[in-house]
Amino acid sequence: MKDLTQSLLDTEDEVMLRDAARGFLADASPVSALRANRDAGRAHDPALWAEMAQMGWTGVLIPEDAGGADMGHRAAGILAEEMGRVLAASPYLSTAVIAASVLRQAGPRGTGALQAIAAGEATYALALDEGPKFAPATTALKAERQGNAFRLSGVKAFVADGSTAGRVLLLARTSGMPGDTEGLTLFDIDADRAGLQRQALSTIDSRDHARLVFDGVTATGDDIIGDLDAGLAALRPGVQAGQAALAAELTGLAGGAAAITLGYLKERKQFDRTIGSFQALQHRAAHLWSEIEVTLSAIANAGRVLDATPDDAALAVSLAKARAAQTAKLAVSEAVQMHGGIGMTDAYDIGFFMKRARVGAEWLGDYGHHAAIIAAARGF
Q: Among 229, 261, 288, where does a domain finish?
């Protein structure tokens, strides 16, 4: 499947970045690597993460004076998109995108952490969700004052990269009630801190997710990112960056699933003809191609707005995430159906795309969440 929109939207440097990423991932992390990780019982291959660090991907959003490449959100999206095409598993979104975007707003407080991320020495998990849906304001996990420290008690239900990350960005309630947008504080804590239990979850996408239980974990004022009781403001740059990059990954996933399906249509024969010659399947493939192309434009726009005017990025990011979730859903549904019965078996890789699409659509806000933001912005 030819990516016409990509060639029109990318600058020369971005084309070079995409080509380099695609070539590297095709060799270092094909879809078969996800199967190997799953069968070996590991969430991702640490050697792959180390190679990504050597290539500068871990520092894509980190300033040069902190050891990063500072390539910007559009570049971060390109890398995520190429990872999505081959379902490359790594802490990239949680660490190099979300945590890096949060910590670069923390001034000198975040410099050391940014340097560790850029060097590939630190990994992060973002502990937000406490229920089945993305709703940070409903946080109930308590951070109760004890002298100059805080006592953290509660549960985070679904934490991406939660069982392997070395550090955790945690949103906790320091005042108010669940549902209040004020009274939330963002903490950066060591994942091995006393009182923190990490329970690995078995998820359909074979990635690292965990339930984190905080039982009297001690945090200090030095662990706070941003201002006390203003955690959502400190968190916003990371969440928006993560949503845009996740949208890019989902769109790359859609392209990868479509490419595999087109290859299958050209090989599979029925009635002495390749099934790709059937007009009904050609129409479905053409419709999917069109949807992916439109979504690629939304992805590129979200990255550019985050780079140019991040304070105005909410609408562009939500549009990208909403479209990406729907496009990925269409791509994997069509892929499994056009593969026929074999598409439902574990023997074929296409099922991995469907599973990852389902998890990615929910993380950091599902279609309904982002559609509501778009509707509100447009006055509906």
A: 229
For the beta carbon of residue 32, count every other beta carbon within 10 angstroms: 12
User: Is the domain of 28 the same as that of 52?
Assistant: yes
The DSSP annotation for 307-321 comes to HH-GGG-HHHHHHHH
First CA to last CA distance, the chain: 37
Span 7-28, pLDDT tens digits: 556 788 999 999 999 999 999 9
Q: Which residue has the tokens 């955790």?
A: 168
Alpha carbon distance 70, 288 (integer Å) = 34
pLDDT tens for each residue of 32-85: 999 999 999 888 999 999 999 999 999 999 999 999 999 999 999 999 999 999
Verify that 161 and 117 share a domain, yes or no: no
| 248 and 269 belong to one structural domain | yes
In this structure, what are the phi and psi dihedrals at residue 46, rounded to the nearest 5 degrees? -55, -30
The answer on 280 and 348 residing in a single domain is yes
The answer on 222 and 187 residing in a single domain is: yes
Our measurement of the distance from residue 80's CA atom to the centroid of its chain's CA atoms, rounded to an integer in Å, reads 8
